[in-house]
């Protein structure tokens, strides 16, 4: 177990933003993780659990307590059941499952940065797959009960970019995640996402070769700056900065009226089914149509030149710079369309 004091956190995040940790502890076994959490809780010390730092905006003042960096390792396959230690690099685990074992279920989640342990936290998803579709159990340390428990998928309260773990951030530390994958003879799960289906020349609902699915997704993601590349500032982000708004039918009708008023009656805003009585629209579309086009911004924090949904650090941005841009966009979209965007990344010591 490694321990550092007054350690810089910015290099441990994909945004490369944020002040130092009072204490930074790196744990490499589940026992170490639990011991650090217990000790911090007993001492009444603030605790921040850190995976790959790809969904975090850490304030410029840093984090005064203990930052626990989870660096546990473990990829265990039993038939089609996969158990990953929380510290496994998610995209490497996807590659191994797909390329070495020919297993389907997480192939459309290739290239997503961060750790396996964080995937249930916001029910990571892309291109029609979400981890909630394959997770069977999460082994987690329950800080309230002071014990390690196994949480079944039904008890994870998975929703769009949400879960019980995100709802109760000071309660759970994920140690292991179990997935039920599928052996589909080298084929993917049915393609659900229209853009991915189009790219692969199939109709929605068809299966494609597993490796081809992974490659297509990586190509689509790279084109949007959504695969980490230290040389490319468009990827110095936390991925999508805002979630896609989910509107009630009444809100959606009011929104469509605003769209017609502002952009003309012939303009169609993206709309997707989002459960009974709800519609989801696209945050990226709203941002663009409110006038914040790709590359928007004049300072060190700007929109990605490849995707309006990624707020990026062009090299010297602070959390204050990034949040000023985020607020400008949030206000601009609300003024234009009456929809309040909600941040997807977790804010540490700051808020929008
Ligand atoms: C370029 C880019 C593209 C992205 N694309 C996508 C995408 O397509 N889909 C998507 O869903 N997300 C995407 N993201 C967001 C991000 O990759 C995911 O949310 C990822 O799961 C975060 O993992 P992490 O280990 O980096 O978590 P961190 O950023 O380290 O932490 C995020 C939150 O999870 C908590 N946490 C981390 N590990 C644990 C644990 N073991 N137990 C309990 N809590 C924990 C932290 O305390 C924090 O609250 C993208 C990010 C980037 C930078």
What is the domain total for the residues?
3
Enumerate how many helices there are, as a single number: 8
Whole-Å distance between the termini? 35 Å
Write down the Rg.
20 Å
Shape: globular
CATH fold type of the largest domain = Uridine Diphospho-n-acetylenolpyruvylglucosamine Reductase, domain 3
**Structure ligands:** flavin-adenine dinucleotide
**Which structural class matches the secondary elements?**
alpha+beta
Second-tier CATH architecture of the largest domain? 2-Layer Sandwich
**Strand residues, percent:** 15-25%
Query: How many E strands?
Result: 18
- Residues in helix, %: 25-40%
Q: Your description of this structure?
A:
The chain is an alpha+beta fold and 352 residues long. It has 3 domains: 2-70, Uridine Diphospho-n-acetylenolpyruvylglucosamine Reductase, domain 2; 75-223, 2-Layer Sandwich (Uridine Diphospho-n-acetylenolpyruvylglucosamine Reductase, domain 3); 233-348, UDP-N-acetylenolpyruvoylglucosamine reductase, C-terminal domain (Uridine Diphospho-n-acetylenolpyruvylglucosamine Reductase, domain 1, Alpha-Beta Complex), CATH 3.90.78. Helix content is 26%, strand content 24%. The protein is built from 8 helices and 18 strands. It has helices spanning 30-43, 90-100, 164-167, 194-199, 210-223, 249-263, 283-289, 319-337; strands at residues 2-8, 20-27, 47-50, 56-58, 63-70, 75-78, 81-85, 125-126, 129-130, 135-142, 147-152, 172-180, 246-248, 272-273, 278-280, 301-303, 311-313, 346-348. The strands form 6 sheets. A 5-stranded antiparallel sheet has the order 6-7-12-10-11. A 4-stranded mixed sheet has the order 1-2-5-3, with helices on one face. A hairpin with a 2-residue loop joins β6 (75-78) and β7. The chain is globular and about 60 Å long. The model has no long low-confidence stretch (mean pLDDT 96). The protein binds flavin-adenine dinucleotide. Residues 14, 48-56, 70, 86, 112-115, 117-119, 121-122, 124-126, 165, 169, 172-174, 226, 228, 235, 237-239, 346 line the site of flavin-adenine dinucleotide. Cell wall formation.
